[in-house]
Amino acid sequence: MARKKLAVLISGRGSNLQSLIDACADPDFPAEIALVLSNVPGVQGLERAEKAGIPVTVVNHKNFPDRETFEDAVHEAIAAVEPDFVCLAGFMRILTDKFVSRWLNRLINIHPSLLPAFRGLHTHERVLEAGVRFAGCTIHFVRPAMDDGPIIVQAAVPVLPDDDPDTLAARVLEQEHRIYPLAVRLIAEGRARVSGEKVLIDGAELPDHALMNPAGP
Ligand code: GRF
Fold it and tell me: How many other CB atoms sit within 10 Å of the CB of residue 49?
């Protein structure tokens, strides 16, 4: 079966992009990256893509008078490569309903919390303030509300007594790098589908607990 095409949208470091680049390097992985788009010029994620020989483009939001014209330019750049899925990987712009509905159920995001808890920014600080015992990360289909939408994969990690936001972020990030490729595999193989605003996963070889267990595959 032909590999599904991905467009990956970034704004910075691109370590999640790197996890997708590394996954796609395996010829058996069911997807490939056709384009990396950043709204910020000169970021590390663009270097990572270039090093991997992936086409890159910058659509700088500062060059547009409003969100809608910026998004139209992003949409046009992405649509030109005809991707099957669009992956947000540390893309730090809020997207309008119009953009989200154009890519409905083909647009996925990573968020460093166990959604629906701790939507938005400064997640790890707020997790520590709340005193919860577990943190984690979520890959979900995007809906118009921020960090909202049907959940594809999550991973949980413990919050340890001496954690600070950086140590917690590092523990969560390790799991982000594990579950983003897993979620992309599931959607690219057509094994994750939205039903009633929940995601159903097919495939007996994927035990339920593997989706949550940090020691899993
Ligand atoms: C990640 O923690 C991701 O969950 C969040 O922003 C961060 C991006 O990191 N949305 P990177 O650019 O992928 O390294």
Answer: 24
Q: What is the pTM of this model?
A: 0.94
Q: How confident is the model over 116-161, as pLDDT tens digits?
A: 999 999 999 999 999 999 999 999 999 999 999 999 999 999 999 9
Ligand 1 atom closest to Cα of 12?
Answer: 12
The residue contributing the CA closest to ligand 1 atom 12 is 14
Q: What is the pLDDT of residues 152-207, one digit of tens each?
A: 999 999 999 999 999 999 999 999 999 999 999 999 999 999 999 999 998 655 55
Question: Which residues partner with 134 through β-bridges?
Answer: 158
CA of 90 to the centre of ligand 1 (A): 4
CA 216 to chain centre: 19
Give the residue carrying structure tokens 């663009």. Answer: 46
14 lines ligand 1 (CB under 6 A): yes
**Are the C-beta atoms of 129 and 159 separated by less than 8 Å?**
no
Indicate the SS3 state at residue 79.
helix
Q: Give the position of tokens 């954690």.
A: 163
Question: Nearest to residue 171, comparing CAs of 183, 158, 182?
Answer: 158
Ligand 1 atom 7 nearest Cα = 90
Question: Contact 111/138 with Cβ under 8 angstroms?
Answer: yes
User: Which run of H or of E encompasses 20?
Assistant: helix 15-24
Contact 94, 121 (CB under 8 A): no
